[in-house]
Design brief:
Blueprint (H helix, E strand, L loop, with lengths): L1 E9 L8 E9 L6 H7 L8 E7 L2 E2 L2 E6 L8 E11 L2 E13 L2 H11 L5 E10 L8 E2 L2 E7 L10 E6 L3
Antiparallel strand pairs: 1-2, 1-3, 3-11, 4-5, 5-10, 6-7, 6-8, 9-10
Length: 167
Amino acid sequence: MNLFIFYVGGNAGKSNIEVHDIQFVAAEKPQDAWPALREAWFGDADKIHVDGYARITWADGHRISLSAEPATGSKKLFFVNAGAYHPSTLAELHAFDLFVAENVKEAKAKGLANLLPGADHQHKDNLKDVDDCLLLEKVGDLYIHLTPDANGEPFRPEWQGYQPIGS
């Protein structure tokens, strides 16, 4: 079983532009996650699509695995989505990543130190403790485990494009 991060998009009600979301799903292969992604989507059911996904195996000095047993360590996996502004664009800029920390304060500090360096009015949006804010303490029947490993690589898009998955 693999832990995937999905970047999904679509329309939502009276939105004038496409909106996006991040979802985490445990699945053997990406296509097995389509039902969970449709269920979590807040927008128009027929407009949801996948813009990209990645398999998460390592983050911030830790190997990530899934297990039937609960994790016991003090370190947790956090999803941090930072936002900022730049004078050349009206749109808010966003960047996100996964960080391992013992608490929200530490995760926020790591996120702000690493995401959107040099951007104006940097602020935090949607700080998420992946274990409980996104209900990933238990993903399906599996728990997220962290093992120190200095030699891993951050997730990179495994696929990007436009894959409609609407009902």
